[in-house]
Amino acid sequence: MQEFRGRTKGAAAAAAGVLLPIALLLPLPAGAQGQEERAPDPAWIVTGQFSNDLFGGSDAHFTHGTRFNALSPDGHVPAFIERAGKALPLFPQDGNLRVTYSLGQEIFTPERIEERALIEDDRPYAGWTYGGIGLVSENGDRLDNLELNVGMIGPASLADKTQIEYHKLIGVTVPEGWENQLHNEPGVVLYYERKWRNIWEMELGDLAMLNNLGVDLTPHLGGALGNVYTYGAGGLTLRFGEDLPSDYGPPRLRPALPGSDYFRPDDWFDWYIFAGAEGRLVVRNIFLDGNTFEDSHSVDKRPLVLDLQAGVAIMLGERVRLAYTHLLRSEEFREQDAPDQFGTISVSVRF
By the number of CB atoms within 10 A of the CB, which of 150, 221, 240, 320 ranks highest? Predict the structure, then answer.
């Protein structure tokens, strides 16, 4: 066991040091020519995401995540949410605004789930079930995403029951150590991300399936502040395919390289492949540091984490987007002996 002393005060001070440089950089303009302004989008976009480490051949650490999200049409934003977002110094005062509502659950376990006793040199059992509300601003080639997540960590998240019953259903090893999970604690985290999209069109001939090919390099900066996560992040994503202005990349579960629930295709069939990298300076990760206000199992986290990802996205019939992302994450704590990897399937539908 390790005590987490002075967590709240230390995290707040360190967070200021991490996020202030990002705040100074975020207002920089995009480096490429902006896209033509589109008419307001009248569609709701509903997204479901399923992440699991079985795609990486293991069953440990970040082991499962599910998220459902609804993104409103342009301009359908409650006035109090718009005022709250624009009151923050980083959030833009212009752009097409949409509100986003989300519900999700994430599950974390040690590697040896068949052991009932506490495994002191591996990460704690932990679950996080949350609801979220956010504000998205699109302005040409720039996308700003502000989101507040509120939920519960510990037995109240029901993550233990979710994993145990699912493992029974599919006939695999049932985890035995959930009695050692983190204690109940309310969780609050505020995320902010900004992306700049740069597109270079490529002419590959007169074939109808090839004449819209392009390359897209999208840098991003952002961070999180709360008792669940506090970090600063930066990275970029490279895409190659058709109709790249239709979105900013498929969505992923945080903390991970940002994508977007937004998509607006111009054709009956579009596709792209992508690869990206993100570095995070981590001040607080409750799933490694342990509970904030009482003693719990914890491990010695690494302050720098690197994510590498690659995948493919397909848009069908101007209404559906399917995507798969495979992610490799560097060691998150000192006792970890190898990187983690997992995959995410996402399905988005426009209504």
Answer: 221
Length of the chain: 351
Q: Bridge partners of 68?
A: 48, 103
Instruction: Give pairs for 13-16: CB < 8 Å, separation 24+.
Output: 14/230, 14/283, 14/284, 15/223, 15/225, 15/230, 15/283, 15/284
Q: How many domains does the chain have?
A: 1
Which of 149, 130, 182 is closest to 290 using CA atoms? 182
Single-letter amino acid code for the residue at 66: T
**What is the domain range of residue 146?**
7-350
pLDDT digits (tens, 9 = 90+) for 121-146: 999 999 999 999 999 998 878 899 99
The residues with which 279 forms a beta bridge, in sequence order, are 234, 306
Best CA proximity match to 108, nearest among 142, 77, 79, 65: 65
Q: What is the mean pLDDT of residues 4-15?
A: 42
HSE-up of residue 77 (Cα within 13 Å, Cβ side)? 21
CATH number assigned to the domain comprising residue 11: 2.40.128.140
Question: Which one-letter amino acid corresponds to residue 322?
Answer: L
Mean pLDDT (whole number) for 250-274 = 86
- Residue 21 pLDDT more than 50? no
At 189-235, the pLDDT tens digits run 999 999 998 777 666 655 555 667 889 999 999 999 999 999 999 99
Q: Closest Cα to residue 112, out of 56, 170, 171, 58?
A: 58
Half-sphere exposure of 326 (CA within 13 A, CB side): 8
Pairwise CA distance, residues 163 & 185, whole Å: 20
The predicted model scores a pTM of 0.86
pLDDT for 23 equals: 41
- Integer Cα distance of 222 and 328 in angstroms: 20
Determine contact, residues 158/129, Cβ cutoff 8 Å.
yes
- Is 2 inside any structural domain? no
Where do we find the tokens 């002393």? 5
DSSP reduced 3-state for 318: coil
